[in-house]
Backbone:
């Protein structure tokens, strides 16, 4: 009964989304005030019914109703309760339903918060949102129905892929979807602006908080996925340049560019056409990501059993939205008034440079990700483009970008003073140089990680320099510096934190890449090996039982300078139900570095292949992303950016500033 | 600066960044990509020694020999097979008669693997391997890849 009701709720959500699209777009076109009051209400309706449908599926999972095909294929009554919840989106159908739910949440938020948008713009935005929701729900209903019943209900389900039975599944997909789908808001705003044929600085002001929200979640989602892969797959790697990872990275890069260009548009009324194009491209890349992951073009842990009709349907969605939006853009671009031209050495000049580099990086990732698919479909030749390609292309571009990043916020608007900025940053550069020389002297240095490390330190020191400059540290009495620090707008602090986070992550990436120590050896109980000052003694094999698995663990005693520090138990985890096994790494954190052990299959003679890593500063990679996200959150809490701050006043003020 | 100079400067900077990206991409496409070959293709058309490539097929039954962390096995596509040497940890779903993809170089007829690609799921068969096996008629539909 619940399955049928949930199915019906989803069908109703579809009907409401269609109505929302029609009423909004038609009402906006006719200028019909009464019609234009409908969309915020339908947006809540779509949310209510999608949420009901999602709650229904969750109920079916939690109660292990195996008469539903989706639950049968992906759940098991002995599965821990947490995974009964998270297993809802640990499969194709459920994850698409989550996608639709997140979209409905964003539409409803627009309905709730966009009260003081011009009614026509709001109607158009909700109309576009409605059309996205309608098409995706139609996709679920026709090709990926999670509520299909089996003719005969089996007594037991098949269980969830063990790799997914982790707390990571509770966090990674919802965060990532909030990011992916959050990009749809900027897209809808861009399409709405194109429909009206009018864009101004106020538009950027409305779009930025939504983009910032999406960016925040996307950042955390990607970082969470990276950490999950790091500890779960037992390879000790945190980023594999897998096409599916790139699919999430591309919208992130585009959204980062969008955040920066929207600042120029808001403050200087320039880069307008470019910003609108970026808003279209960001969500297009999200859709491309959805297509790559969900169509079965690629095979990876993210793609569940694939079905060709789904691929074709998503491809059609992709072509419809991306093609439609770009066609509309091409049609209207001539009518849009371009913004001003500005001096290369200025804040806006730096932001433009940021956009150039981010676009180049995004295009490179795009090429590396899609070239193998293209080549194979054209010539049948199979190639793989992996880490060596991206390290050689994205690496240098990103390093250059991060090296100029600290200068940006120090430059003044309109006309910056490059020499003064160079003087301000000289201390930061000196710090980066001295620390690098110190590392070189004591640790030895591979060239590429050394450059990355120096750049990362420069970025961190640069962010601190910026803070010191803003509060005029040491130049004015301490009390005044303190009051200046309190008076700093949160959006500037947010920028500062985000840039600081980038530097921290880069230091982590550089340290992990350049100074990790790896050891692979076969060890028997009683034997010891040492890695980077740690002595690891394999004490014994141990067996542990979990709710639906058993672990065969190798217990290692870890000693440093002869002193016992801890015990690590890397293991093979065997899931009895599916006869599958996973690798559970044994990880211990020392400061910001980690000791990482994983084992192979036990041999008949009791020995085992052990892979032991010492990864210095590795935690900075993810801590840096958390700092970036904190920066975004702080910026969002700034009153000036708050969604729907009186737009009339700001518009007038901006019109008064002549565009250069 | 005049308006025209500003415009030209912006365009010049954009040109430089773009050229840099294109140059890096082209050189990386020449040096850093890896081709995929089946054991039959390797036998027919052996690559120059030291060239990195990927091979794929099934792990031949009874061919796995472990010696500490050193593993030897053969990859077969039904018609031809290649001996592989690998030092390190094998992925969880590495089994006889299962699909496998190895990346490395060919030296004196032995494939020195640097990485053995993991499968995440028992249903997942690397797509390259599926195609290779279909070519040789070894692939039976509904075997593995789909539920």
Residues:
């Amino acid at each position: 009964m619940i399955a049928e009701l949930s199915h019906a709720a989803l069908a109703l959500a579809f009907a409401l989304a269609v109505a929302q699209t029609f009423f909004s777009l038609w009402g906006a076109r006719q200028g019909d005030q009464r019609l234009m009051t409908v969309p915020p209400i339908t947006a809540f309706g779509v949310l209510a019914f999608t949420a009901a449908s999602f709650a229904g599926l969750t109920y079916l999972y939690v109660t292990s109703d195996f008469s539903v095909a989706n639950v049968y294929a992906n759940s098991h009554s002995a599965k821990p309760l947490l995974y009964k919840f998270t297993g809802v989106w640990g499969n194709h159908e459920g994850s698409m339903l989550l996608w639709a739910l997140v979209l409905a949440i964003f539409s409803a938020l627009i309905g709730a918060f966009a009260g003081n948008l011009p009614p026509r713009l709001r109607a158009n935005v909700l109309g576009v949102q409605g059309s996205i929701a309608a098409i995706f729900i139609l996709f679920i209903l026709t090709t990926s129905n999670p509520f299909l019943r089996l003719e005969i209900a089996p007594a037991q389900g098949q269980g969830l892929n063990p790799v997914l039975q982790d707390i990571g599944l509770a966090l990674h997909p919802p965060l990532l979807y909030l990011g992916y789908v959050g990009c749809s808001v900027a897209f809808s705003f861009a399409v709405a602006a194109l429909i009206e044929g009018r864009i101004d600085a106020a538009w950027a002001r409305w779009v930025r908080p939504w983009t910032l929200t999406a960016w925040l979640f996307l950042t955390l989602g990607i970082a969470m996925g990276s950490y999950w892969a790091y500890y779960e797959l037992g390879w000790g790697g945190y980023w594999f340049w897998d096409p599916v990872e790139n699919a999430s990275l591309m919208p992130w890069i585009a959204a980062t560019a969008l955040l920066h260009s929207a600042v120029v548009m808001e403050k200087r009324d320039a880069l307008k056409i470019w910003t609108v194009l970026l808003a279209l491209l960001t969500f297009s890349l999200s859709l491309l990501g959805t297509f790559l992951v969900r169509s079965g073009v690629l095979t990876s842990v993210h793609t569940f059993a694939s079905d060709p009709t789904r691929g074709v349907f998503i491809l059609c969605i992709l072509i419809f939205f991306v093609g439609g939006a770009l066609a509309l853009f091409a049609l209207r671009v001539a009518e849009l008034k371009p913004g001003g031209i500005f001096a290369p050495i200025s804040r806006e000049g730096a932001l433009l440079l940021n956009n150039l580099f981010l676009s180049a990086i995004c295009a490179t990732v795009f090429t590396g990700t899609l070239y193998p698919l293209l080549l194979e479909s054209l010539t049948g030749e199979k190639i793989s483009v992996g880490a060596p390609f991206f390290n050689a292309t994205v690496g240098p571009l990103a390093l250059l970008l991060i090296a100029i990043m600290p200068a940006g916020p120090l430059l003044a608007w309109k006309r910056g003073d490059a020499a003064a900025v160079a003087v301000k940053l000289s201390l930061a550069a000196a710090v980066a140089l001295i620390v690098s020389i110190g590392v070189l002297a004591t640790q030895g240095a591979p060239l590429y990680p050394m450059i990355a490390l120096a750049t990362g330190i420069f970025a961190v020191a640069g962010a601190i320099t910026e803070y010191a400059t803003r509060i005029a540290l040491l130049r004015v009495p301490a009390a005044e510096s303190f009051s200046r620090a309190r008076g700093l707008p949160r959006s500037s602090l947010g920028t500062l934190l985000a840039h600081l986070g980038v530097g921290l992550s880069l230091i982590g990436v550089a340290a992990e890449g350049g100074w990790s120590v790896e050891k692979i050896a076969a060890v028997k109980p009683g034997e010891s090996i040492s890695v980077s000052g740690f002595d690891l003694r394999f004490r014994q094999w141990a067996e542990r039982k979990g709710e639906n698995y058993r672990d065969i663990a190798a217990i290692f005693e870890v000693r440093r300078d002869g002193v016992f520090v801890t015990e690590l138990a890397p293991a093979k985890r065997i899931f009895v139900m599916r006869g599958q096994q996973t690798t559970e790494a044994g990880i211990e954190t020392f400061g910001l570095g980690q000791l990482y052990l994983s084992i192979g299959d036990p041999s008949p003679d009791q020995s085992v292949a052990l892979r032991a890593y010492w990864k210095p500063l590795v935690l900075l990679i993810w801590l840096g992303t958390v700092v970036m996200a904190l920066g975004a959150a702080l910026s969002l809490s700034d009153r000036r950016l708050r969604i729907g701050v009186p737009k009339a006043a700001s518009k007038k003020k901006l019109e008064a500033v002549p565009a250069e | 600066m005049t308006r025209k100079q500003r415009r030209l400067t912006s365009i010049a900077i954009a040109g430089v960044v773009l050229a840099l990206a294109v140059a890096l991409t082209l050189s990386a496409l020449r040096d850093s990509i890896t081709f995929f070959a089946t054991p039959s293709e390797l036998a027919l058309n052996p690559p120059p020694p030291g060239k990195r490539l990927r091979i794929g097929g099934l792990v031949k039954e009874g061919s796995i020999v472990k010696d500490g962390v050193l593993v030897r096995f053969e990859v077969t596509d039904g018609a031809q097979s290649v001996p592989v040497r690998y030092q390190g940890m094998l992925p969880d779903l590495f089994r006889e008669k299962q699909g496998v993809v190895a990346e490395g170089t060919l030296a004196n007829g032995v494939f020195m693997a640097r990485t053995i690609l993991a499968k995440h799921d028992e249903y997942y068969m690397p797509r390259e391997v599926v195609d290779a096996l279909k070519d040789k008629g070894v692939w039976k539909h509904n075997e593995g890849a789909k539920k």
User: Anything to note?
Assistant: Residues 141-147 of chain B have pLDDT under 50 and may be disordered. Chain B touches chain A through 47 residues (CB under 8 Å). The first helix of chain B runs from residue 3 to 31. The longest strand of chain B covers residues 99-107.
